[in-house]
């Protein structure tokens, strides 16, 4: 039994991946909201052996694993694993797989879209022109500027390539170190504090872990240039929310382009919504037909390989 407990908003139902999953066994699909509640998630998983995780609001906790002893594999659509207790999964003999790299091009392009929109004041200029104004803002140019890149995996590496095409110098920080790999990609390795001080644009592409939560806080903002632009397409909690709002509202930084938030969907009245120096998108950087098709198919391919005894893209549990 394969269960999809959290296909809301629906992307899996009726897809090529849905058809492929049916060839592997019975598929039980839930395309209504509710999987964010632990008891409901447990009910939906039931006696399924495999779960396909579509949305990060479905949280696979130790209690979920205890209540669902038949569950042996979770296949995540996407890269992030912060909604899964990986230690608990390993303890309960559950293999967790994801789909790395599938959305790298789309998210990197979106990162640059946010970067350019903030640098060029595009949203405000468009709004002012529609109101009958003819704004004459002084705009920022990316050529010749320095990009500070935190996270140099598939997405970060693609962002670096785009930055070099724009004529930017790229400084990079990787949680794994690997200075040789960074230099081979045209990225100059740097310490966190060094990058924060030098960068004209900072982009975040880190996984959310206990070590990276609040990776950018008040102390980090204090080191940045006053005209820096911060772009986050990783996870909202990589940045301390109060420190971000303070830096933006006080003019400590020039602006931010954000695709991810602490609360998703973002709540009415959130202070970020009222700040003129932000450009916001609803966690949809990877929402392209190509990413959706290829990512969902890879999530099902991971299941096929797991059932055949040779799991792929394993982030927790047995790799074979």
Keywords:
globular; Rossmann fold; seven-stranded parallel beta sheet; 2 domains; alpha/beta; 320 residues
What does the model show?
The mean pLDDT is 96. The protein has two domains: 130 residues, NAD(P)-binding Rossmann-like Domain (Rossmann fold); 177 residues, Rossmann fold, CATH 3.40.50. 35% of the residues lie in helices and 15% in strands. The longest helix has 19 residues. Helix 1 packs parallel to helix 12 and helix 5 packs across helix 7. The strands form two sheets. The protein has a seven-stranded parallel beta sheet, sandwiched between helices. A six-stranded mixed beta sheet has the order 2-1-3-4-5-13. The protein has 320 residues and is of the alpha/beta class. Helix 4 links the parallel strand 4 and strand 5. It is built from twelve helices and 13 strands.
Brief overview:
By secondary structure, the protein is α/β, with parallel strands linked by helices. It has helices spanning 16-22, 38-45, 62-67, 86-91, 104-119, 122-130, 154-165, 179-184, 192-198, 218-223, 241-249, 289-307, and strands at residues 2-4, 27-29, 50-53, 73-76, 95-97, 146-150, 169-173, 188-189, 201-204, 229-232, 255-258, 278-280, 314-316. The radius of gyration is 21 Å and the shape is globular.
Count every beta strand, where a strand is a DSSP E run of 2 or more residues.
Answer: 13
Structural class: alpha/beta
C-alpha end-to-end distance: 21 Å
Give the averaged pLDDT, no decimals.
96
In CATH, the architecture of the largest domain is: 3-Layer(aba) Sandwich
The first-level CATH class of the largest domain is given as Alpha Beta
Number of helical segments with 4 or more residues? 12
Following the backbone from N to C, one meets helices and strands in this order, namely EHEHEHEHEHHEHEHEHEHEHEEHE
Low-confidence stretches: none
Name given to the CATH homologous superfamily of the largest domain: NAD(P)-binding Rossmann-like Domain
The share of residues in helices is 25-40%
Number of individual domains: 2
Please outline the major beta sheet: 7 strands, parallel
User: What overall form do the CA principal axes indicate?
Assistant: globular
**Into which percentage range does the β-strand content fall?**
5-15%
CA-atom Rg in angstroms: 21 Å
As laid out across the biggest beta sheet, the strand order is: 8-7-6-9-10-11-12
CATH fold description of the largest domain: Rossmann fold
| Assembly state of the chains shown | single chain
